[in-house]
């Protein structure tokens, strides 16, 4: 049986109860992991309150603000982990953002600012969080990120996010190579389309979901819980020989040609 008892896991990217990160956090908790959760701070504290209420049943022992565009907050987050836990075993990266303007229209029309912002938040953040986590993963560990098919194929209304996911997937491979000698594994999960706060910004998301339900071998899309199960597996010793990989959790849609 999958057992994460005694493992310290940090989960980023929970926004609400539809977040894939929420599904992952639930499965990690169910497997016995000790959870830490970050939230995106804002002036009115809306995210803090919403996320705190949502994760309360999981009893996280760390609940921290972390804006990945703020290096000082990243350092403060991992310093708090060092002081509270002493080490980190699992890092879950569920962070992505692109402006609505950069998700539709002519791809060549994307602004330099929107392109840079999407890459920084969606791809570079994995590098910055892994750099901060590296000294704390003293007994090996697992880093898991979320990607999507749009990083390897053209998906309507995905545009700049597709470039960000392509960069993210190469980050997985380079980080896996760097951190492997430390017995830290780095993998990505390419999830099928799920209706979340983030995906709602992608035009035609419901049509995409219905298409997957029609075409995928399992004739359905996947749930946050199924993605969470895969993340828990990748964080466990059952996946001790897996690193640098992108695992598709999409009801088999990725294999289909038409």
Explain the overall architecture.
The chain has 258 residues and is of the alpha/beta class. The protein has a single domain (8-251), classed as 3-Layer(aba) Sandwich (Rossmann fold), CATH 3.40.50.720. 39% of the residues lie in helices and 14% in strands. It contains seven helices and seven strands. The longest helix has 22 residues, at 112-133. The protein is globular and about 50 Å long. The mean pLDDT is 94. It catalyses: a 2,3-saturated acyl-[ACP] + NAD(+) = a (2E)-enoyl-[ACP] + NADH + H(+). It is an enzyme of class 1 (oxidoreductase). Belongs to the short-chain dehydrogenases/reductases (SDR) family. FabI subfamily. Keywords: Fatty acid biosynthesis, Fatty acid metabolism, Lipid biosynthesis, Lipid metabolism, NAD, Oxidoreductase.
